[in-house]
From TrEMBL:
Metalloprotease TldD/E C-terminal domain sequence ranges: 232-446
Skewed-composition ranges (Polar residues): 339-349
SUPFAM superfamilies to which the protein is assigned, alphabetical: Putative modulator of DNA gyrase, PmbA/TldD (SSF111283)
Record's protein name: TldD/PmbA family protein
């Protein structure tokens, strides 16, 4: 429950850090206090394999002396004055950063919306073990599953406090529940494995352990006896789980820091159509019970819900204060705390669904590759060149006919985005959410 995290004490400590930094000579400063409680249980073959509980605090003080900045961190706050003096001394010898500074006071959050971030249900090791064992049993019950790769259940609470020298003081607590199971099918050199999982803010939204285990088992069994493919050009459909990576590549390319560094293949495309007409991508920091929902960002500001792609057209970068100043733009509340400062990034980013189910996309494509798993990180952020290892299923006449593996999918994200067609099966559980997507005519390299 929220009583496990004393936000008032965290606020007091963060405020003391800010006061100490001003006394030490900082022109401006902010302090972040983060605390957490987590519990995780792993099981294998019907027995608890590991149970782990962790608790901890972390404090980061960022100071500005003119346009020079420095930050220091500590796990305990026994001597805020000493920590502040060290940070100010470091800042005085740091190089100047013309874009450094706190957020514009006019942008600071004044009212904190209710976003359903905290589930008051406190989990125990025993209840987590029961969930994991149930998921494992369901996976092992699937015909063709030969063994368990393990199952795990987790619960955590995280508290965040941000205090600034120009008057902002905000805090929130968020909960997270997770459950996963890995199943192994076949035997000897013909074994295949797959998994299923769920992660939710509220326990009541978590899928049933038996469902997660069953799906893990079924996914492993259908991967048995994969065949290699010859090199060809083919239609490709990414399952929702795999399609999230494509949306992640987009989020990286429209990150203001990448644009400012000129390392994004979309750096010159603002206001242009980069997807087909009708495509919408929305970033929503206020999504209730969302995985990346927050009442304020890493600078104490809040931006609007952004239609970053509207009717196929690129409309926004993700911007924090420093990046916005560098680009001559207005920040839009997408600051994440990162090391000694902030960096921009997405919150709950969603590729909005289309009208056709996965089965209808396969029927429309006729034949092609259904991607269920991706390997490696072969994407060039500067050019958009794309090359990923993949496994999945070959389909013909809209029906799966064979598991396949050891494939490389190649293309360029600029072309892939233009041809991308979203399905209707949006998986809305995660901070990066997509339906399945269909991309016509991609290069497949096989044996």
């Amino acid at each position: 429950m929220s009583e496990l995290i004393d936000q008032s004490e965290l606020q007091s400590r963060a405020a003391r850090l800010v006061e100490a930094a001003r006394k030490a000579g900082a022109d401006a400063c902010d302090a972040v206090a983060v605390t957490g409680v987590s519990l995780a249980v792993d099981v294998r073959e019907g027995k608890v394999e590991e149970s782990e509980r962790a608790e901890g605090d972390d404090f980061t003080l960022r100071v500005f002396v003119g346009k020079r900045t420095a930050a220091v961190s500590a796990n305990q706050l026994d001597d805020p004055d000493s920590l502040a003096e060290r940070a100010v001394a470091m800042a005085r010898v740091a190089p100047e950063d013309p874009f450094a500074g706190l957020a514009d006071p006019d942008l600071l959050v004044k009212d904190f919306p209710a976003l359903e971030l905290l589930d008051p249900k406190e989990m125990t090791a025993e209840s987590l073990a029961e969930m994991a064992l149930e998921a494992e049993a369901a996976g092992l019950a699937v015909d063709g599953v030969s063994k368990s790769g393990g199952a795990g259940a987790s619960w955590r609470l995280g508290g965040v406090v941000l205090a600034t020298s120009h008057g902002f003081l905000g805090s929130y607590i968020a909960s997270r529940h997770g459950l996963s199971m890995t199943a192994v099918a076949g035997d000897g050199t013909s074994m295949e494995r797959d998994y299923d999982f769920d992660s939710r803010t509220f326990f009541e939204d978590l899928e049933a352990p038996a469902e997660i285990g069953r799906r893990a088992g079924e996914r492993a069994v259908r991967r048995l006896n994969p065949q290699k493919m010859s090199t060809r050009t083919a239609n490709v459909i990414y399952e929702s789980r795999a399609a999230r990576s494509l949306l992640g590549h987009l989020a990286g390319a429209i990150n203001g820091a990448s644009v400012a560094r000129k390392t994004s293949f979309l750096k010159d495309r603002m206001g242009e159509a980069i997807f087909a007409p009708g495509i919408m991508v929305v970033d929503d920091p206020f999504k209730r019970r969302g995985a990346a929902t927050r009442p304020f960002d890493g600078e104490g500001t809040s931006g609007p819900v952004l239609n970053v792609i509207e009717n196929g057209v690129l409309k926004d970068w993700f911007l924090d204060g420093a990046t916005a100043r560098e680009l001559g733009l207005r920040p839009n509340g997408r600051a994440h705390r990162s090391g000694s400062g902030t960096s921009p990034g997405s919150t709950n980013i969603t590729l909005m669904p289309g009208e056709k189910s996965l089965e209808e996309l396969m029927a429309e494509a006729g034949e092609g590759l259904l991607v269920s798993d991706l390997i490696g990180h072969g994407v060039n952020g500067l050019t958009g060149d794309y090359s990923r290892g993949a496994a999945g299923f070959w389909f013909e006449n809209g029906e799966i006919v064979q598991a396949v593996s050891e494939i490389t999918i190649a293309g360029n994200l600029k072309d892939m985005f233009k041809r991308l067609v979203p399905g209707s099966d949006l998986d809305n559980r995660y901070s990066t959410a997509t339906p399945s997507v269909f991309i016509e005519g991609m290069a497949l390299a096989g044996s």
